[in-house]
Amino acid sequence: MFGPAQQVCERGNWNPVASPACVQLACPPLRPVTDGGFAPIDFQYSTGEVVNYFCDGGFSLFGSSTSINCIDTGPPSVMGVWDPPEPAGCTLISPTNTACLSFPCLNGGTCLHKPAPPFFECVCTSAATGPTCSIPP
Fold first, then answer.
1. Where does the record place a coiled coil (predicted)?
2. What CATH fold (topology level) applies to the domain 94-137?
């Protein structure tokens, strides 16, 4: 919402004169993903929209999550933000980063390749916690 959250009628006139207006905020443009991509592809993304990332065959997503949400952080922000931030990109699956191929993340967790041991990180759903999403809430 832009403008005042409330107006008061004083002596037959609204104060402040400007009326509030509801607007949908847009998130910053997304960077291209080498050896992968994202969907849906759009010119502009508004708050509430979700973007899903993917990698080409032989590559694995390297970063915070496979999907991001355009959210409104509230005043004074005039733009939406991506939550979590955009993934770093796709990395070539090699002997040192095949950890996710064994599906180490349990209970619906998402496996992300990392460049250092143990070469993976699990992003858990609300159904579990722990390094491999094996601990119930």
1. none
2. Laminin (2.10.25)
